[in-house]
Amino acid sequence: MERYIYAASKMLVPLYGAPNERTPVEDEILCGMQAEVLGVRPGWHYVRTEYGFEGFVRSGDLVKSASDWRRAPRRQVCAPFADVLRRPGVKGGLLGTLSRGARPGLAGEEEDGWQPVVLPDGKRGYMQASRLAEIPDGVSWPEEKLRASVVTTALSYLGTSYRWGGKTPLGIDCSGLTFMSYWCHGIGIYRNAQIRDGFLVHPIPLEQAKPGDLLYFPGHVAMLVEGLMYVHATGRAGSDGVVFNSLDENSERFRLDLKEKLLTAGTIF
After folding, report:
1. Which of 174, 184, 185, 202 is catalytic?
2. Cα dist from 79 to 93, 127, 131, 147, 168, whole Å
3. Catalytic site residue 174?
4. Measured in whole angstroms, how far is the alpha carbon of residue 133 from the centre of its chain?
5. Is 232 annotated as catalytic?
6. CA-to-CA separations, 116 to 45, 53, 130, in angstroms, rounded
7. What are residue 118's DSSP bridge partners?
8. How, if at all, do strands 54-58 and 44-49 pair?
9. What does the alpha-carbon distance between residue 33 and residue 41 come to, in Å, rounded to a whole number?
10. What is the pLDDT of residues 180-210, one digit of tens each?
11. 114-143: per-residue pLDDT in tens?
12. Are 56 and 79 in contact (CB under 8 A)?
């Protein structure tokens, strides 16, 4: 039996820490991300995502993925957002909208810039081919190329609002930013602000950290960009989103509160 037969078919599915919509959203499962159902409660499923994060989703928010989608070659949304239309052409009628990192399946050959796609629930539509890309096999890339590309992806979220549990350009949190920066390269890291056994990131001294490595603080994570400059999603008043800050005391972007709390750096390399 296939382990992962459930998947998100809409832009995002909220994943909660408890079976109660009044509790904070801990994660968002994007279209094409899969999950294993570990338990069932009235109105809720307890799931483990394919990237190893656990929580509760409302019954019906995940679908049993259609065989057409499971067999189809996958592509990844590379734009902040991309519409799925019922017919090719800008007047094709909106079927849905996907965010960066979503993974529809291919359902035919591209024609005149329009790519037929299939979603996990089996619905078919068309997307602008320019908004789709092959899913990289980042683990096989040369280290410097991967580091540079991961940083570029993180920087593409600059200005995005802070959203607890968020993972899209609609709103993103600190570990959502670092997770998505690697996920868009075909690499899954732990989706929380900590280093966890069994996942790719391992601790290193700060002086060994390079661009693309992560900086861990209590309940917070950032990505090193260059030198002592880092990018992160912060809910701090006056920032409220994805911004640059620095560990350099002489920089105008220096944050003393984070420098004092730095626990360790981490890397997948």
Report:
1. 174
2. 20, 12, 5, 20, 11
3. yes
4. 15
5. yes
6. 31, 31, 13
7. 105, 124
8. antiparallel
9. 22
10. 999 999 999 999 999 999 999 999 999 999 9
11. 999 999 999 999 999 999 999 999 999 999
12. no
Q: Given CA atoms 61, 67, 70, 73 in this order, what sign does their dihedral have?
A: negative
* Residue percentage of the chain with pLDDT more than 70: 99
Concerning whether 184 is annotated as a catalytic residue, the answer is: no
Listing DSSP states for the chain in one string gives: --S--EEE-SSEEEEESSS-TTSPEEEEEETT-EEEEEEEETTEEEEEETTS-EEEEETTSEEEPPHHHHHSPB-EE-SSEEEEESSSSTTS-EEEEEETT--PEE-S--BTTEEEEE-TTS-EEEEEGGGEEPPP-GGGS-HHHHHHHHHHHHHTTTTPBB-TT-EETTEE-HHHHHHHHHHTTT----SSSS--TTSS-EEE-GGG--TT-EEEETTEEEEEEETTEEEEEE--TTT-EEEEEES-TTSTTB-HHHHHH--EEEE--
pLDDT band, very low/low/confident/very high, at 88 (cuts 50, 70, 90): very high
Q: Tokens 């994570």 identify what position?
A: 221
Q: Which amino acid is at 45?
A: H
**Contacts (Cβ under 8 Å, ≥6 apart) of 194:** 216, 221
At residue 2, does pLDDT exceed 70?
no
Q: How confident is the model at residue 1 (pLDDT cuts 50, 70, 90)?
A: low
The mean predicted confidence, pLDDT, of the chain is: 96
Catalytic residue, chosen from 45, 78, 184, 220, is 220
Measured distance CA(213)–CA(160) in Å, rounded: 21
Across-strand partners of 13? 29
Tell me the two tokens of residue 263.
């626990």
The owner of tokens 């802070």 is 162
Which is the catalytic residue, given 45, 184, 185, 232?
232
